[in-house]
């Protein structure tokens, strides 16, 4: 796994927390899913409460950060809702582990 910086600070020690970049190969219980839905960069940004430019920067970073994406054309990039939910669950687990927080 590759490490990615988490720019929040741990209030206990004041250091920036570095967590591994989640991989979709990490073991996670399958999410219940109906039809697979896609979301735009703007949809994802609204969901995460970040600017769309942040999502674009994650996508173009080397190595890529953020959830997996589907490049439909030069100008159209979409995100599968199931992939985004899985990425958020994995990220939450890695962050909790890095901060030493017990998980339910």
TrEMBL record:
Domain (Helix-turn-helix) ranges: 38-88
Gene3D superfamilies on file: Winged helix-like DNA-binding domain superfamily/Winged helix DNA-binding domain
InterPro entries the record matches: DNA-bd_dom_put_sf (IPR009061), HTH_17 (IPR041657), WH-like_DNA-bd_sf (IPR036388)
Pfam families: HTH_17
Protein name per the record: Helix-turn-helix domain-containing protein
Annotated source species: Micromonospora cremea
